[in-house]
Specification:
mainly alpha
Length: 195
């Protein structure tokens, strides 16, 4: 559709050679969110493996749902991630973080090596951080959609988000984690337990 040789871009360029094209703001934001450090990418890849392990077989899904029900979890199933649906990342990460204890029990009962991640404090901290940051990205993404959006407001929203990011970075370097609630609570609980 937007190809330079045969798509809309090429056809418009023939008629109006001075036209300027830009990537969709939402798509740019989605692409930027895919570039993360190796530790965070590893954590995210393991999340996908865990979700696939549970969701790939209907029996696993039913057993996991029953375990969640018996443990009184608010939710009883994991969500699937899709690269096409940008908002799914944050929701998948939040759900997995929320269900980490039933997941640990389930994976241990299946003798899966994936269960080791759910007792690794560093991996769980990375998961909590990812859940929080993708929640912020989901909020930004949702605010950039709708009928009253245009390039100027979208640029302003991205600029404000980048300014917030800089403030968050400064606050985190000072030990203030208020903008990352799941990470903050997880680290406080880990510290209280002495892990």
């Amino acid at each position: 559709m937007t190809g330079k040789t045969s798509g809309v871009w090429a056809k418009i360029s023939k008629i109006a050679p001075h036209a300027i094209f830009t990537h969709c703001m939402l798509h740019r934001e989605s692409l930027a969110s895919k570039t993360m450090g190796l530790e965070l990418k590893f954590a995210f890849d393991q999340v996908i493996k865990i979700v696939n392990f549970v969701k790939a077989r209907p029996l696993n899904s039913r057993l996991f749902r029953k375990l969640c029900s018996e443990m009184g979890a608010e939710h009883e199933h994991l969500l699937l991630h899709s690269d096409v649906r940008w908002l799914s990342r944050g929701k998948v990460l939040n759900r997995l973080f929320e269900l980490r204890e039933p997941l640990r029990i389930f994976l241990e009962s299946k003798n899966s090596e994936l269960s080791s991640h759910l007792v690794n404090v560093d991996w769980l901290a990375a998961l909590a951080y990812l859940a929080d940051i993708f929640e912020h990205l989901n909020t930004l993404n949702s605010s950039m959609q709708g009928p009253q959006t245009h390039l100027i407001t979208l640029n302003d929203k991205i600029a404000r988000f980048m300014a917030k990011r800089d403030v968050w970075q400064q606050r985190v370097s000072n030990g203030i984690l208020d903008n990352f609630p799941q990470l903050k609570v997880f680290l406080q609980l880990s510290e209280a337990v002495g892990v």
